[in-house]
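Quick illustration, no need to memorize.
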Amino acid sequence: MHWFKPFMGKESAALEGRTVDIGNLKIHIRNPIAEGGFSCVYLARDVMNPSKQYALKHIICNDGESLELVKKEISVMKSLKGHPNVVALLGNAVMDMGRTKEALLVMEFCEKSLVGVLENRGVGYFEEKQILLIFRDVCNAVFVMHCQSPPIAHRDLKAENVLLGPDGSWKLCDFGSSSTNHKRFDRPEEMGIEEDNIRKHTTPAYRAPEMWDLFRKEFISEKVDIWALGCLLYRICYFKSAFDGESKLQILNGNYRIPDLPKYSSSITDLIKDLLQSSPDARPDITQARALLDCPFISINLGVVSC
């Protein structure tokens, strides 16, 4: 879901004003702040400590598939608990409502999203140091995911899913699309199922070439996140998508252009080129991608996590 899409009132604000117990937390649910197809994020306050705010994600599960996605999201967030660049899950509950089940996820509240920052900067492009600081934090989150066994692919890395934490660090969120099912799809029936999953749970502008055309029969793995990191870095630098109009043909051919302005060093532009390799085998893994951030300032700061 898009966390910071303005709430338009499509979903009933049924939880607004209620007080609920979730685990050891007692929270008062305030106004909706974002929405998705079957979910809504509310601002909430701690009843015992009213100065403490949370983001409460309410998800309606109409079938077994959507319930499994919620369980997977909770499981991934628990496995990444304590990482400074991952939005913290503070409590969760799944309630049986008869025909449906409803999930409540209490998370740390992050007031700003990266997409909001980008869209509100006008023509004030970032300095190179600022770009690397943002990108460092996202890479650190991806690094810890790819270091799990088996590696966890986020599969929906984008500016909307990067939030600014209260401590000033950038944090990755929304793990409902994540996957450990890394494979080459050979049979038509498998391809059909995977194409449907890709269509429903990934974002076209950040979707890797091997996800656009399964008939290429390339191995689909956590390397899809490396491509998405290239798209994200391009977006941070130039405030637009690398692939105009999210064109399938452009993406399959890796056809994009580095703008003349703003002018960044080869450390930035070469990194974009390395990440946006059409073949997943030609892309660096996340360890290599971090090493490619060879600016001394950033290299020192990247050395904070190891497998």
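Strands lie at 19-22, 25-35, 39-46, 53-61, 89-96, 101-108, 112-113, 162-164, 170-172.
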